[in-house]
Amino acid sequence: MKGILALPWIGAAGLAGAALAQNGIPVAPHAGPPVSSTGFVVDFEVGQVSCDGGVAVPVRVERPFPVWAEGMPGSRTQPIEMAFRIDAEGRPLSIVRQQRPSAAVRVLYISSEDVLPAFAAWRFAAGQARTGCRMRFDPVAAPIATASPTLLRRYYVSPHQRRPQERQLFARLHPADTNCIEAGVPQVRLRAYPAFEDIPQPSGTWSYSMTGFDIDASGKPVRVQLTESNGNAVLDREALAAIRRSRFAPEARHGCTYPYYRYSTTAMTGPAMPPKASFKAADARCPDETIDWAFLPPLRFPQGFERRRIEGWAIVGYDVAPWGVTGNVRVLAAEPAAAFGEQAQRVIQQARQPASSTGASGCVDVVRFVIAEGRGPINEG
């Protein structure tokens, strides 16, 4: 079975960023008069990585996208813990999220769908495979009024659903006396962009550069500077050059900003897969030829992995009743994260084979999650 999936959403260039659906926020019951919920921008602090009792130092860290959350005063966040291994190339694999019950009375529920995909893009020193690895991300929530400008800029540029509080957030990214954020200004005459395809970007990662500038009376950007970046020096240089090439209506403005972002367009392929036959029991009663399924539900990527163009696979075992219904569906192996196995398991559980006189047992099948060639995750902006 091979999953070739077209990416389901398209980003918009420039300040519009990209839309990303957030999980709904359940409101916990409480006693007494109603209490208004509070909005927070949530960042994910990176914890220490340990493997087999020793510390593992990453050589590349990819931060998860900040998210928006709403909750009651006093709500607490829950750490996101994971177990994994590191292969000989320094790639984290067999990533499993560790679920732990919370002792907090009020929990701030957040969308964490990008945490594991972002971590899958990390890299450690090559040459030594390691097992028994663990680490955690600690969500840190801050109201717009007190959140750091760095966090607000990252959140504003990253994929997220626009909210009523966006105006307050946008104002905090600019000087108090700016005249460059009113509706309809500045009026763009020419918006220049970098040649994104010439800017290197490792698979599974993204970069952004936030520029700041004024506009002179002729509509030319002046005093152009880099106000925020996550470290892609080529994008930084090309972003500044693009702003200098841009032109606006002939009206002086100050305190303007504009971000550019770059996503990797190269899919991160799944690691080498062991032979399917190695998982098949000697007493299996299942034909070796390709199965002509009577029904296969749509194959969907695990949350967040498709947006970062991270491919994967799963090997699934199952039985089939004479009337074609699958049963005893179990994940035998999955990479780079257990989430791929969970999605594959759902597909096989819902799939149906043609009716037969005997059914089958001990079947083993491969489910591949592959990004459709030529389809990008988002338009750079």
Describe it.
The protein is of the alpha+beta class and 381 residues long. It folds into 3 domains: 40-163, no CATH class; 188-263, TonB (TolA/TonB C-terminal domain), CATH 3.30.2420.10; 276-371, 2-Layer Sandwich (TolA/TonB C-terminal domain). The chain contains 5 helices and 18 strands. It has helices spanning 115-120, 149-157, 166-172, 233-245, 338-350, and strands at residues 2-5, 38-46, 50-51, 54-55, 58-60, 67-71, 80-86, 92-98, 123-124, 130-142, 188-190, 206-215, 221-229, 247-248, 253-263, 312-320, 326-335, 360-371. Strands 2, 3, 4, 6, 7, 8 and 10 form a 7-stranded antiparallel β-sheet that branches. A 4-stranded mixed β-sheet has the order 1-18-16-17, with helices on one face. A hairpin with a 2-residue loop joins strand 3 and strand 4. The two termini are 36 Å apart. Residues 1-35 have low confidence and may be disordered.
